[in-house]
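User: quick one
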Amino acid sequence: MASRSYGQYCGVTTAVELIGERWAMLIVRDLLVGPRRYTDLKQGLPKIPTNILSTRLKELQEGGVVRRAPLYRTGLVYELTDYGRELEPIVLALGRWGFRQMGEPGPDDVVTADSLTMALRTAFRADAAAGLPAADYEVHVGEVALRVQVDGEHLRIAQLAPPAPPVGGRLPTGEADLVFAAGPGIRRLISGELTPAEAIAQDVLAVVSGRADLLEGFASTFHIDSPAAVPAAAA
Amino acid sequence: MASRSYGQYCGVTTAVELIGERWAMLIVRDLLVGPRRYTDLKQGLPKIPTNILSTRLKELQEGGVVRRAPLYRTGLVYELTDYGRELEPIVLALGRWGFRQMGEPGPDDVVTADSLTMALRTAFRADAAAGLPAADYEVHVGEVALRVQVDGEHLRIAQLAPPAPPVGGRLPTGEADLVFAAGPGIRRLISGELTPAEAIAQDVLAVVSGRADLLEGFASTFHIDSPAAVPAAAA
DNA sequence: CCGGATCCGAATCGATACTG
DNA sequence: CAGTATCGATTCGGATCCGG
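Assistant: Done. Structure below.
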């Protein structure tokens, strides 16, 4: 157990001892969306071995990052403590930083509801949104469907359950102003590599219904600059 | 190699694939202080196996985070790329977050020059410093000696070479307004758990020379609030 | 179905030794 | 100074199994 210690008395070291182990940060990412059951986490992290999930949740609890809470009469959720929730700006900043180095998706890469929710949060530009009229989008990426409502600087994202009826949370009523479907290539819209028109032309995105003109607003509301160059170093 | 992939197409995931491996974040932390040679890094991370350091540096270069640069005629340094340097606010925020969960130092824990430098940066309160007169401290923690100069919102930290050859080799000391020495317990001063007077009384800190009254200014310039409670969960 | 625990082979890490 | 090489100790990944 002491083998995990980095042997330094330092805040950064303590932080990575708490949330630096493999998978831990992704568990935190998903819990930032909301409390999750063990099975939810396992589904949202399809490649995590179950024993690792179990171990990480124990460690995160010991570290005061995560708490177990009963749900209804039977059932159980994991949720972030107040201390754990303070990681939100850090995880968002990390997501923004990592976004810029994302390449094309690997053949086995998936987009989960929680990861897309957090990705939109990282890309959200409150300043840009404040200058636009309120908008209500329904975004589909792969199997994931999200209702994304932007009103001034306020962002609200709800996950639409595609295979099953919604659980607990009340879903937005009424139709979205714009419904569109995309693949992982939506990254290139958010990075500004493609304009909405180009994205449609290149088939990375398709409008299902509603006002296609709102795509411009979507693209300026959710945006992460690609740097001039983030080259992988040559050998 | 593909075994390292988390199988998700997401910015956070990409980020932890780049800098989430064991030791990687600490390498970045040290490089945020300045370019470092291989040997410097090894010294600053006493417990890192040399093959791991070597591997991480290669991975960080492939990820576009770190670059190798020649130094003088012979010699070699590792330094952050522009992209890597953008991690600075994230690492500082992580340090601030982790600081609050730090307990007492383990028997083998060390404080290195780079980790203390970054710790002071994380704790620096520009707003508090702006209201105080400029001050020039010399801080000793264990073997580490730092020259810490605060002028308004500007902070400058220089590392004084501690393993000074024989006692005669005096470094640019003596000019600081206040010279003091502490142990790891300096954490309790920065957290506000102890006032400067209490820290001296409890022997966690000793004024070597200069104006002891400046300790108040130091404590308000470098401060990280401990939350009301950051409890470790019970079993 | 939920919430894990157990087992085992594969990959990684840690410690030390050695080299250009 | 700047790393490789080696090898035992851990951890991770994948699959299966188990009690409510």
